[in-house]
Structures
1.
Amino acid sequence: MGRQASMKNLLVQLDDLPDEILMCIFKKLYNGEVLYSLMDVNQRLDRIVRDTIFLRDLCLLEYCPVDESTFSLPDPIIDRFCSTILPKIGHKIKTLFLSRTSIERVLHTTNYPNLNHLGLCDIEYKVAQSLFSDESPLAHVFKNQISSLFINLSFKDPFSREGLTSIIFMEIFKRCANLRCLKINPSLFDLGTLNNSIAYRTTICSTLLELHVTLTHMPDCLYILDGHFDQLRILHVTFDRTCFELLDTEHRLKLLPNLRIFSLCCAAKIFGYNESIVLLVRRMLNLEELDLNFALAHCTKFIDGDTLKKDIITYLPRLYKFTFNIWSRIYYNGIHFPSDEHNQNIFKHISNNHIITSTDQFQEKRYRRYHIYSYPYKWKLYNNITNNFRGGLFTSVTRVSLSDEHPFEYEFFLRIAQSFPFMKELTIKNRKAQHNKQLIKSNNNNQILSIIEYPNLTRLDLRKAHDDYLELFLFDTNISSPNNLHLCCNYQSLERVTNYFTRYITRNKCVNLAALYCNPMASTILAIVEYGAQKQRISLDPHSSYQDICNQIYSLFKLDTINSKYSLQRQDSLKFGLFINIDERTFQNELKQYAIKNSQNPVLRLRLIPAISKT
């Protein structure tokens, strides 16, 4: 009754607002939420939500802000859409995104005569095979209507992926006669799959104009470009792993005059800049827009403005927009670095972007890193930020990683907060203790330093960070973050910082965590126990007390504990043949730490010896 009354009051309040205000409110919500909540509620709201702006594009997925993933809507919501909503609005839908569990049901609920753009998320192979078959009742839709397709395949058996993706890949182009834009899920292609799919055909699709795809190998990009999509104008390529392969001589001389927009992003590192990136891009004679985002490993020279001009820009006379984010690493010093002004002059005829550079020197690992990028920064990830970071405003960035050989202090975290206002994920890799830790505590007591605010932070990874940084985020006096924070850290660090979960100042932050991910702890530890000439195996609970383990071992060897006393020893982790006495007061903590450090194969060696009589 209370919920019904609350909904009734809400509807009364909505009815008091003019149509223009309601439209502004509803536009800020997901279309699916608007339709599910307000359609058929009353005549006025029904008229508003039937506006084309809410019906044209429909996404029946739920969004997770922590990792930006999507998943299926609850069954009751899908039931209402299929039974009541979709039959009334299906003829107005132009774009439709569906998840694995609802794909077949939603597509068969009603007709979609104006459907042009379709997204199939986390779709299983058998469902995809059924949809793209001749017998599918939707065959005419794919053949005559679908011009834009996003497909994200899911495989229960990863070893079967190569052959199955090849089949789906060919079926898509066979059935979708009017396909103009295709976006494929990560790693749909690999060298064997793609090569086998197109070996017997000159042209796979003569209608495709735009392709977004994640690849595994650099040569795969050539198989896409070498005449198999002869009308392709836009290509976005992401490599999901380190690229070692170089382009072979056979493909080096073939030109790619049709391509107008090319984007390349490598999630890991690229080897052989000249033999991969340069040779590939130079073939795109009529390229107008170019976007490069990669890190170069083990290079003999830094990639700066002069290098990009000499290797790429000179060969692309029609290029008018060039955005880039390039890291390069070199293992010796004595190199001259051009100024930002010099780099700016090189790119002044291409775009209005500013060019920013930075240099970091890592003495412990004996290398230098050079970063050059176009600003405004357009990418979601900003990696490898050090203390040399000069700041700025990066509104597109949602994921940030910090890494340095020198400690991060209060001013640095303040600069990060100001530079990345929409940061959702933060990873800190720094094993060095803070120098000004005590000063921060003193200032906080006197309320001199303001609290640093990370209002959008949802995920914090401190697995490779010193305890000081965990303390910084868990103390109420240092950093303000939302209550839905997902924290990744080492279990030992968490115990130290919270003083085994008894420290009051960390209580509020710990209680309000949405999720806590610690190093995995083995559920059981296999122990090999020696007693004289005997050896026995026993499974131990990492949470067991010293006395519980002793009782297990006594029972295992059928020992008389009334008339005899025994001591338990464990093998020294540093000296294989040496056994040391176990400290009863700290044994339980040691057992937990052992289970964490050896979570994949925890085998503990113990030895039981008769206790020495003191009489």
2.
Amino acid sequence: MIITLTARGKLGFVEGKVPKPPAGDPNLKRLEMCNSLVLAWVFNGMEKELQPSAAYATEAKALWDDLKERYSQGNEMRIYQLKSDINLYRQEGKTVQRYYSGIKTLWNELENYLESLGCSCDAANRYVAQREKNKIYQFLMGLDVRFRGVRSDILKIKPLPTMSRVYQMVSEEENQHAVTRSREAARTPKGGAEMRAFVARSKSKNPQGQRWTAEGKPICDHCGRPEHVKSSCWSLHGSPAEGSNNGKGKRSGSQGMQTEGG
């Protein structure tokens, strides 16, 4: 309702900022028409159950003040709930746009309940600036952990950027993450295909579980060295030359023992 009245230039009627002209003033009739129009807007904006209590109101400000007094206690509870929701609000995997839209909705509703200082002095400007800074802190605190880098960069900037600039920086970081993921996804199928081909090749070469190097060379299960298998391992069976020499030596020795025994 405040937004509607402000947009139509009639908020002053419920705030009591429009002075009433004296009797006989030519502007009096126009003011009374505007007052009735504002009354109708406020009345139609009320819930059906509440309208009978305001059916005979004649002054927009009087009706507005009555409603504020009657429901101010409920407002305090809503303000408390909104502040709690804002402090607990987290991105939790949502896009930056959706996350910002959600927390901004809470901020906007809270603004409707909070009173402005009603002036343009330095104190009022500092108050507004501090509230905007608090929004930036709340927005940054709720971001997912993958944004910790850009969050740290933003907090190092002096003075702190505006909320619009902060949103832009975080969105750019999100876009960069998306580009990185796309590149990784483009590489993964190729790497996966190569790995599957290597495994298939290994199994076809030795279905019993032969180990292979990355270059596709066999690894001996006995000595652990590459380029041969256990069945041809020299450490286990000896080299062909060694086998021949050992055979001759054994035969000579055997023959010598037999001669001596004879």
3.
Amino acid sequence: MSDASTSIRDEEPVSERRPLEAQKRNGPFFVVANVASGSGGEARLEELRDHFRRSGAVVRWVPASRDRDLEQPLLWAAKAAREAGGTLVVVGGDGSINSALPLALESGVPLGIIPAGTFNYVARDFEIPLELGEAVDTLVHGSPISVRVGQVNGHPFLVNASLGLYPRLLEDREKAKRRYGRNRALALAISAASLLSRRTTTFSLDIQRASEEGQTLGAPHRMDIATLFIGRSSLQLRRVGIEEAEAPGELTAVALRRPSALRLLGLGIRATFGALGDAPDILSFPFEKLVVDENGRHRDSVKVALDGEVLRLACPLIFEVAPEPLRLIVPDKDAPGRNRS
């Protein structure tokens, strides 16, 4: 994409209802719209523009048509929001939100979300409405809260991070979709069959957690695992029956020992009924810092999925809470999720 500033579209409020309040509360809003996320495309984007016009907010539009085009628009929008004292807004799914995290954390600007993805875990976890009009109202009249963000080797995540089976499952599913079409059940079945035929990678875990006196304790664990899942989303963890880390400086890890295909199926059933935490093949624990290294194969990097986006990172992998919290715009009420620093 060329210089993002050449594509900026300014819109002044057409509504006279509380225009000053809309501008002073969180605006102006610098909106990066990933129209490829979810369904609806341009029609949904035009509906969103209409909601913003009716809200009385001042908006600067920074369009992006594909996920790979998000970096430059987000960079420009974050810089402009910081200079104007405004808010960086992402229209998209959890992956698009993840792309904005480094810039929001670095610049210190509030991050606003218009959910437009498939699962929208971030929005649901913080009770941000999925309906466009209500989501815009949250941006205009909501409040920023401090949210702890996980990171691995400096790469932040707001929903989860994983390595082992899950990143490979995501890639195999995309390959199957390209080959066999958008039949989700077929693509998932083919990718799962391919996954079970592969060799399981062994990782070593070095867990560190603060004691009651504030001293860091080392508790090394070595095991053969198929997947390591690091959760930050309380919604996801509750759904599968895993307790969320209570301390603000901690994350929750879920390690899956190497199971047979039959036991893997059983674990899937347990997860469906929210009983994964009781499974003998599952080890879950809170931590402040988790160091993960690959055993035996000594490759330069391993695949890690961050909020559903797969990338390669060099070992050892260091999971921890980011030093600075994210300022996230949420509904202005005393609801679960406030002050999650």
